[in-house]
């Protein structure tokens, strides 16, 4: 008897197909990296479709609540620094605490691409869960909504207080623009003319 047998001959093409499909998926995922706006628009459309589905089905409130808690957890990771000065002192880059400190860029605990990818996967999984009645647990949804809102407000308050205490802003609104050569050339020509 040989060790491989017929099971190995069937598994090899299946594994090869799975590997090729994963490589193709990863290729297209990598292609989306520079297109952040389009990625987020696609996720917003997916979230809207999920909301429409749960509205018309009038159910799956537990799935939606779990999705909301997961997204809140991802948001906290997205807004938090990689090295939290409150928890662990490090020799690496820390957040500047005084105006005279050296500038150190804000490094997120959860990068934007991973944040987007995790949220998109979560909406896809939640959308799939709405196709099975097993996940449609009867609950009084207003209590879940109020509890989630309270949890969101308390968590965001804590995060904002942390941002104020350590003086960091986790967003960079647009790329900073500097005067460059044009402003330097105009200032040097005006000083020569005088």
Q: Give a quick account of the main beta sheet: strands, pairing sense, barrel closure.
A: none
Number of domains: 1
Low-confidence stretches: 187-191
Oligomeric description of these chains: single chain
Give the strand content: under 5%
Contiguous helical run count:
6
Reading the helices and strands in chain order gives HHHHHH
Total strands: the figure is 0
Q: Label the structural class.
A: mainly alpha
Share of helix among residues?
55-70%
Radius of gyration: 25 Å
Mean pLDDT value: 82
Distance between the termini: 97 Å
Q: What tags apply to this protein structure?
A:
globular; 194 residues
Question: Could you explain the architecture of this structure?
Answer:
It contains six helices and no strands. By secondary structure, it is mainly alpha-helical. The protein has one domain (35-170). Helix 3 packs parallel to helix 5 (141-166). The chain is globular, with a radius of gyration of 25 Å.
Summarize the model shown.
With 194 residues, the chain is an all-alpha fold.
Topology (SSEs and partners):
Blueprint: H1 5-31, H2 36-57, H3 61-79, H4 112-129, H5 141-166, H6 180-193
Helix pairs in contact: 2-4, 3-4, 3-5
Subcellular location: Membrane
Transmembrane segments: 37-56, 62-83, 139-156
Keywords: Membrane, Transmembrane, Transmembrane helix
